[in-house]
Design a protein that fits this description.
By secondary structure, the protein is α/β, with parallel strands linked by helices. It is built from 10 helices and 19 strands. The protein has a 7-stranded mixed β-sheet with strand order 15-14-13-16-17-19-18, with helices on both faces. The chain is globular. The chain binds S-adenosyl-L-homocysteine. S-adenosyl-L-homocysteine binds next to helix 6, strand 14 and helix 8.
């Protein structure tokens, strides 16, 4: 980290390969580079130069098809001051979005490329930040980032939990340990739009909570009144809690993981005590939808995990989306509302919409699109890095 900028190794691009980088796309593909020194260590900071020697940027080297992730364009050091500046900029945006406030203290502070720090995700839950590295370079920088987080003015972060066991490339053999870098366990409670949630960053999926559905949950709250709601793939029960808050007649939550169901139950209790409107089922959602009776729900949520993590799984994924959407559209009561999502990066908005269209066509019912949904503004998309858009959703009205 203390190597001088001018002493960093330089990787030079093949002729004509600088175009996308000059447009600030932050990835350098391995095929675009001339020779890479054999002893270059994975995770090292490198400078990337155009074929004429002009320095384009500084980034982290990694073995794989994305060879360098550019952190800073031009010829500027990526050091303690760099991370502190990126965090300040990111926090300023979250303040402008009015997301860091007592009744909403759960938000994404750094969304990788969307906040100009490729490889880094930071989610904040009250006084605790959960730091996740997706690249070896960020893993090496974790202590510096953690220190910058606790020193970030106004953010009141006391504890930084490092959680990268499942996100780092296993081939790098870093054997990261999930643990606190700064501070300790303080409280697992956070707030979102005035509602309360237990967040399990120690054992839960991702950083413990799916912050990316915040706005969509808020929209659902407005439709819940007087409706019988089914929340499939409920995980921590986010949609269930909002539906109850919105005045749903009943809410059934389904997830195949018993752990998820106990998180959902705990979050319902935290907000509403013993609320007899809520029931939960540790069950496969496909099976639940298959055995669901006609007209038993007026509002259904389908928020499955990424069916296609890679392009190779695309056709299976689309089949999965068609199947669950067809069941929901077929069986929902007349005047029903369906919230349906795909968080697969490999599935485009058009492909998802087409899958839902085919599902609707199978049922022969009249279906209209009321809303087209995406990820919230604390998951910004760098306009030069369209790959950062991943969450797609539709709200349908079914006659
Ligand atoms: N809607 C949630 C996030 C969903 S994450 C939220 O707003 O927070 C996806 C969830 O689907 C996980 O909890 C996982 O346990 C569950 N899941 C995966 N496969 C499933 C299946 N076949 N049936 C039911 N749940 C499943």
């Amino acid at each position: 980290m203390n190597t001088k900028q001018t002493e960093l190794p330089i990787l030079t691009l093949a002729r004509g390969k600088e175009e996308s980088l000059d447009r600030f796309h932050p990835w350098v593909f391995s095929g675009a580079l001339r020779k890479v020194p054999e002893d270059l260590e994975e995770g090292s900071l490198v400078r990337v130069a155009a074929s004429d020697g002009r320095i384009i940027g500084t980034g982290h080297y990694q073995i794989g098809s994305i060879a360098v992730r550019i952190l800073s364009f031009g010829d500027f050091p990526v050091d303690e001051a760099f991370y502190a500046m990126r965090l300040r900029d990111a926090f300023r945006l979250r303040q402008a979005l009015n997301m860091a406030r007592p009744d909403n203290n759960a938000y994404r502070l750094i969304h990788g490329e969307g906040d100009f720090v490729p490889g880094l995700v930071v989610d904040v839950y009250g006084h605790t930040a959960v730091l996740q590295a997706h690249s070896v370079g960020i893993h090496h920088a974790r202590n510096i980032i953690a220190e910058a987080l606790v020193n970030l003015d106004g953010a009141e972060i006391h504890n930084v939990y490092y959680k990268s066991e499942t996100t780092l490339p296993y081939k790098a053999r870093l054997d990261p340990v999930n643990d606190y870098i700064v501070g300790r366990y303080e409280s697992d409670e956070a707030t979102e739009n005035g509602l309360r949630f237990h967040i399990d960053w120690l054992k839960g999926q991702k950083t413990g909570f799916f912050l990316d559905q915040r706005d969509n949950r808020e929209l659902l709250r407005k439709y819940a009144h007087g409706r019988r709601v089914l929340n499939t793939f409920c995980y921590t029960g986010g949609f269930s809690v909002y539906a109850l808050a919105g005045g749903a007649l009943s809410v059934d939550s389904v997830d195949s993981s018993a752990k998820a169901i106990s998180l959902t139950d705990a979050n319902v209790t935290l907000n509403f005590g013993n609320d007899t409107r809520h029931k939960s089922y540790a069950e496969d959602a496909f099976k639940f939808l298959d055995r669901m009776e006609q007209d038993s729900y007026d509002l259904i949520i389908l928020d499955p995990p990424a069916f296609a993590k890679h392009r190779s799984a695309l056709s299976n994924a689309l089949r999965g989306y068609r199947r669950i959407n067809a069941r929901a559209i077929e069986r929902i009561a007349s005047g029903g509302i369906l919230f349906t999502f795909s968080c697969s990066q490999a599935v485009t908005r058009e492909q998802f919409r087409l899958a839902v269209f085919s599902a609707a066509a199978q049922t022969g019912r009249k279906v209209r699109i009321l809303h087209q949904l995406t990820q919230p503004s604390d998951h910004p998309i760098n306009i030069y890095h369209p790959e950062g858009e991943y969450l797609k959703g539709l709200v349908l009205y079914i006659e």
